[in-house]
Amino acid sequence: MKTAYGNYGMPHTPYPAMLRDVAAIGYDGLELCVTPGYPTAPGRLDTAQRKDLRLRALDLDLEFDTLMLSGVSVHEPDAARHRANLELLRRIFALGAELGLDKPVLTSTLGGRTGDWERERTALADCVADWTAVSAQCGGVFAAEAHVGGLVHAPERMLWLLDAVNLPALKLNFDYSHFELLDIPLTNAIEQLVPHAAGVHVKDVRGRPPDFAFLLPGEGTLDYADYVRQLNAAGYDGYITVEISGQVFGAPGYDPTAAAGFSFRTLSEAVSAAGPGCGLSP
Questions:
Q1: Cα–Cα distance between 218 and 153 in angstroms, integer?
Q2: What pLDDT, in 10s, does the model give residues 150-194?
Q3: Domains assigned to the chain
Q4: Which three-class secondary structure state does DSSP give residue 134?
């Protein structure tokens, strides 16, 4: 396992500065945010910029890990918007190919509301199947992420979805913060979901729904050394990726570089404390 940073937490930072800062902090990898409007979205990068982005990352020894899409609901009942979302997926995977990703992994939450599960789960599975099919056609993987308050908010719903869609290109992105808000023990969540995980996001939480907040990794009470040990014991050997919530980067006085540095120190200390038997790279 190595550490990665998601530039979802740098919504206004041009990619040359973002790459420089992420590499200087010490991260091994980068989760590229492809949300429309972001500096690294397909619509913001022409051919020359895509080549430049790839070469800069290579020069800095930063590996592109996953592609992260936010603000687009996978659960989309409107047929025209659903088709437009699938076209966006194709543009995203084309960007991934130009950046040199052999098998791009796209992660996204799914949308919807928790209370609508019984009525909407079949429609959700159909939408996820379409996203997964397009991902496979483009040589990639779709990694669905559970989200507090969403249609898929708990491990059992994610497992149902994986079984209902039943396509090899469908995986999940594991973010314990959403399960911590439901008081689901870390061990239980890891045992159920990490065998299906293509990636891991980390951030902390304070409070419980409906009165809660996402925090930087290390600002809450989660024991990250134990988290790392449990991920390793479950056989996970991918990146541990810092995701900085919009609740954090939207707050007054937010400093993206300082937040990325604080989060990296949290993970580095956790990796060191986890012990050499975990085979991790601090």
A1: 23
A2: 999 999 999 999 999 999 999 999 999 999 999 999 999 999 999
A3: 2-278 (3.20.20.150)
A4: helix
